[in-house]
Amino acid sequence: MQSPQSIKSIQAGLLDGSLKMETRVDNHLASIKKSEDLNIYIEVFEEEIRKAAEELQEKINTHPDKLGKLFGVVFSIKDVLCYKDHKVTAASKILDGFESQFTATAIQRILDEDGLIIGRTNCDEFAMGSSNENSVYGACKNGHGDNRVPGGSSGGAAVSVQMHTCDVALGTDTGGSVRQPAAFCGVVGMKPTYGRISRYGLIAYASSFDQLGLLGHHTEDIATVLEVVSGKDSFDATSSNTPVDKYADLQAIENKKFAYFNEVVNHPKLNENIKSSTFDLFGKLKEKGHTVDDVEFEYLDYLVPTYYVLTTAEASSNLSRYDGVRYGHRSKEIKSFNDFYHKTRTEGFGLEVKRRIMLGTFVLSSGYYDAYYSKAQKVRNKISKAITKMLEEYDYIIMPTTTDIAWEIGAFDKDPVSVYLSDVFTVLANLCGLPAVSVPLGKDANGHSYGIQLISSKYNEAKLLNAAFSFQNIT
Ligand code: GLN
Q1: CA triplet 145, 42, 209: central angle to 5 degrees?
Q2: How far is the centre of ligand 1, averaged over its atoms, from the C-alpha of 177 (Å)?
Q3: 53-77: b or e for each residue (b if 16 or more CB lie within 10 Å)?
Q4: Which end of the chain has fewer CB atoms at under 10 Å, N or C?
Q5: What is the pTM of this model?
Q6: What pLDDT band is residue 472 in, cutting at 50, 70 and 90?
Q7: Is 127 in the pocket of ligand 1 (CB under 6 A)?
Q8: Best mutation site among 78, 133, 174 for ligand 1, i.e. most ligand atoms within 8 A of its Cβ?
């Protein structure tokens, strides 16, 4: 298995000849073979990446001055991102056989800077889930090795980094899907501000929450890639033209103010190891001269309900396009017009997706719209205002990424509500559109990883990455 080299050292090695692109790709492909039982990849672009590696090595040899910023970096892409002439299914039967007609902006920017794509990673169907168990391809497993979930929905993305099958993974985060699997797999996961990275070419789950995110071994690598993929895109009206900072110029943080919530660090479901590591970290931060304050936040109990009312509403609308007319699966049992939709969607969608379409349709229905959808919008607004105000006074909000370590596969099969509730620490950033990062915090006695999460104000990714970078040395 390759040691997790940083992008900087990979590129230095490629330039001085101590590393060869073909060997790098061979090693990554070998790691994929070795970890086949984990079900990380839905498709590996083996031939294609070998060819790309050969061409890139040629460019390194002949035109080193023309190399892009991400030359030599190998990426995996979550199976909700479109890549022209490649299949994409959102891990759903309903998109069986569908091929992308265009390339997601983030992927295009990576390719334009000489990055390479190794394959499509497993995930929860339409990014709905926290464990990667809701995939038509079957669960992806945590590389830790004792039949545990990798987290979700970007489970495959996290394990693809954990098992060294790529350098950086592209995932998506609607309510924690990058940060939570990163925490469960012991890697760094970042979700930038809503609108920082174009969503063009990302299959929508809940459009006002969805954001692309990055997973890697090193904060430096995430910063380097973020600089490339961020910025305005004329194909996505919600992408921001706020200038992209030089994220990769990472600085150690000094004299910062951290806010935490007492109800979070004393949450009844919080794992004891996570709790004690969190308090240890608070102690270390104070020793280094930072302020760590307990701050009042009255909306904690409203986060998960607000998130699930709004995201299911958006999902029910977004997923109405999958009807078997234009793309993907179409039932063969059609005898009437109604059968067409009914059977196609019944056969094509999995249980969790159906549950959310039902829930979303209910909260949007005329009789309940005011009671649920409209009220949840108001609560979202209140939460957002309270947090924005807090972040005027504090540099960061700090809390564990998850309440617990990765659970055993199947443990919550009959209890979806407990899984929803487990998202309590991650949905806040998406409700407010804020950037957030999860950094490895520790491991329990059995080696199960957990993470610490930081949230900062909008477009303050540089500040967030500086803290994540400093934390990697502290934790
Ligand atoms: N676990 C959350 C959900 O199921 C988050 C998913 C995501 O971020 N895509 O909605």
Answers
A1: 90
A2: 5
A3: beebbebbeeeeeebbbbbbbbbbb
A4: N
A5: 0.97
A6: confident
A7: yes
A8: 174
